[in-house]
Amino acid sequence: MLAGAAALTLLVMVLLALAFRRGGAEAPGGRRAPAGLWLGGLGVAMPTTLLLLLLGSALVVGERMVARAAPERVVIGASGHQWYWDFTQPGADGPIVTRDVMHIPAGRPVDVRLQGNDVIHSFWVPRLAGKMDVVPGHVNLLRIEATRPGVFEGQCAEFCGLEHARHRFRVVAHDAAGWAAFQRGQQP
Amino acid sequence: MTPVARHKALTAIWGAPRGWRGTLCSVNHSDIGKRFILAAFAFFAIGGVLAMLIRAQLATPGSAFVGPEIYNQLFTMHGSIMMFLFAIPMFEGLALYLLPKLLGSRDMAFPRLSAYGWWCYLFGGSILIAALVMGVAPDGGWFMYTPLSSKAYTPGINADVWLLGITFVEISAIAAAIEITVSILKLRAPGMRLERMPLFAWYLLVTALMMIVAFPPLILGSILLEVERAFDWPFFDPARGGSPLLWQHLFWLFGHPEVYIIFLPAAGVVSTVLPVMARSRILGYGWIVAALLALAFLSFGLWVHHMFTTGIPHMALGFFSAASALVAVPTGLQIFAWIGTLWQGRPQLRLPMLYLLGFFLVFVLGGMTGVMLAMVPFDWQAHDTHFVVAHLHYVLVGGFIFPMLAGAYYWLPHVTGRARVPLLGEAAFWLILVGFNLTFFLMHLTGLLGMPRRIYTYPEEMGWTWLNLLSSVGSFIMAFGFALFVIDVALQVFLGRRSRRNPWGAHSLEWAMPVPAPAYNFASQPHLADDTPHDGPLAADPGLPQRLARGEGYLAEARHGWRETMAVDMGSGAVDHVVLLPGNTRLPILTALVTGSFFLALLAGLYWLALLPVVAVAALAWRWAWVLGGRAAIGPVSIRPGQTAPTHREAAGAPGWWGSVFLLVADATLLGSLLFGYAFLWVVAPNWPPPAMIQGGWTPALAAALAAAAAGMLLARLAATASQEGRRPAARRAAAAAAGAQLLAAAALAWLGAAGLPPPDSHAYAAASWALLAYAALHALLAALLAAFVCARLGSGHIRPGCGLEPAVARLFNDYAAAAVLIVLACVLAPALLP
């Protein structure tokens, strides 16, 4: 996408430069640019073809990111507040609620059930997935997955008032043993 | 009459008195246009200073320059000012100033309306700036998402300032849109066919039509949110069946077309200036017009791309993603049409061309990132980061400010009558270009490194420090560039040497007049032959300006103190009638002041007191319409030797009729948006079905409302027919009865609500139903007012047989009111009638 954008920008700039070079060299008036080539070809056919290709691939990538039933799936509740996050993880003896730190197992798909309470927030852990809004009155689902154990930074991405800048949280991805321990209520 | 005597006589008719009296009463399009441009630039400077403060805050991590309370006001006001107080009014000003000149006409169709729009804009903008100075400016983002902007989370008046101030300003946008549309369709030089008119007029026509449809959703959203804040009607409160997403839909239904509403006029400037710089004609006139229509159509189908992360199903997103990407095709077509134009001409690198090259670079880059963001998976990451900030500035600065600066240098000699001072403009260009790219190119990277938008500070360890510092440095370089531009313009105005006529060798009609432009534009209006090229007649006919000054065109006679201009058939441009435009008056400023006091009363929470200005506005509107036209018949008047035409009140299809039609189109869009909201809440919002629905006791009210509205419509039609046939007493009786019937309809609607509906603050369902009833009742009252006006005018003898305009407009509004009552009742009663 980046290379294509750079190439197209370069194409426009080169065509512009050539227009000035040619313009200086030739006799006044009397030259016609073929409308079919400029408008039908470069103006319509080229962008349409490129965009359709791009759209097709984006749709395929997007479909792969949509949350679907998976056997290994873990569902974790996340609710955004001004200005903290509450997470509800499944534990061995019922749900475990944590504030501002979310615990997930690494290597397994996790569906985050996003629930809003006051204003709109947006759940975003850049290393794990795209963002999804937390809208009061609606429940949204976001599929995330950490490929390795570790700590990942999260940030509210929708302007939510005074302390929006500090509306952050952390995601801790555990290996299988760590996750089991967490679920038993042993804080690592 | 000699040209000098004609100039004096026409200036006496079309000009304004000197000094502040003239300032308060002028309705001339050149005056109003220049004021819009100057004020828009002043607001641009204020918005720019806010941007400087934002950049100063973000230049270093953990900065203590301003806290979040101030910072949130800064970015909210920066966005709101640039969108509503700079970009739209700047284009309106350019259109008001240029359009009649491009079309070979003497003024816009509704001069008093432009003046009214101007004062509304000035007063509304001033309310916002005053709030900024007092530290109570809006702080919920320029997009005002609910529930953050609802009473619970913004208890102060900050959000009310935005909702009321912006709505006040939007009056000027709707006024300008209607005026531009009607002026282009009706007030062209005779012989100018629609498909031969200057490309710039096409751009403005499409833009104005888009505005007529795009602004009502925003206005409706603002009204609903203000009603929620003031009276607790829960349209957006999920606990009582509202939805925060409804606000987002209404906002972006406006917000995305808005981007094209800003871009298209600027693209029109490119299409006008670039061929002149290339000493050529635009390549593919027909292709470009088709692209504009496609763009206008597509731009209404992609608002959801601002909402990719709100949880809408992925396949639905696919549709909006495709529309968002495909909108690049008509834009790309224009880019290649422009480059092709340069290829076929002999381009010169003069200052406007330099800015156009800057436009190409910046705008094409913005378009590329736009296509990237249209891809849903990419957007899920980049959404609400500084990447989007970079993208939108590339699009808006590239797509609006660079072309507008090109246009400024191109048309300044027309406004000032002077040539520019060399070299300063080039220096300003390079400062702006380099500063802009330094600021915003780096912001792409900051965004990809994960920096979200709208955060007032960030910790050092995020690694955004250097990029932010460089962006801030760039923004100050850009600011110096704009300061230099201001100095350059000031030097030209005060010190530049006299410019010759038509300094660029352009072919279009605005250069067929002396510079600076006289108040009346053309001493006589040109006739355009069928084979006139679309870029204007001056290439084939260089002697035209002199012949027009000698009075060898239409309406060369300065008579009776009339402001006369020709109206033509929409398509063919054949002579239709002569429009007698109203002259200078203080009605616009007075009406705007009263309108402003309405908004101020609401802002202060004095809701009962706010009814007073409503009555006053109705009285002023009555006066406004009353002072037009006299009691005596005029008959056909001479328009040039051997040719006569009727005046507008005695002709069919006068501008006033078409203005009413387009106003009702905007109005119907508002109703459509309200119905969309009603249905949307029904289907999507939580906590439905409501605890109480419409029930019992409404049948007699329904029958009364329907019968009264239908009677109003039939009686208004009867009045129009009787007046046309000269049966004045019968027409008066019918008009009076129509007014009475519409009053009854309004009362019956209120009765129906009281009898059957739960209270409006109980649930979003009840609130939406009450809003629908209020809409219908308001339109019944409006129809009653118009019918009463016709009755009074028949009585005073202003309406004679053959003077059909006023009864026809009253009939139109009565028809509309009846239709609105019928539709509203069907929707409000649907839950009671359906199983």
Structure described in brief:
The complex is a heterodimer of chains A (188) and B (835). With 188 residues, chain A is of the alpha+beta class.
SSE order of chain B, as H and E? HHHHHHHHHHHHHHHHHEEHHEEHHHHH
Taking Cα atoms only, what radius of gyration of chain A do you get, to the nearest Å?
25 Å
Order of helices and strands of chain A: HHEEEEEEEEEEH
Order of adjacent strands in the largest pleated sheet of chain A? 3-2-1-5-8
How does CATH name the architecture of the largest domain in chain A? Sandwich
Q: Structural class, from secondary structure content of chain A?
A: alpha+beta
Identify low-pLDDT runs of chain A: none
Mean pLDDT of chain B, to the nearest integer, reads 95
CATH H-level name of the domain at 689-833 in chain B... which superfamily? Answer: Cytochrome c oxidase, subunit III, four-helix bundle
Helicity range of chain A: 25-40%
Query: How many separate structural domains of chain A?
Result: 2
CATH class of the largest domain in chain A: Mainly Beta
Query: Which segments of chain B are poorly predicted (pLDDT under 50) over 5 or more consecutive residues?
Result: none
Please report the distance between the alpha carbons of the first and last residues of chain B.
78 Å
Quick one: CATH class of the domain at 689-833 in chain B?
Answer: Mainly Alpha
What share of residues are in beta strands of chain A?
25-35%
Helix content of chain B: 55-70%
Main β-sheet description of chain B? 2 strands, antiparallel
Distance between the termini of chain A: 42 Å
**Alpha-beta classification of chain B:** mainly alpha
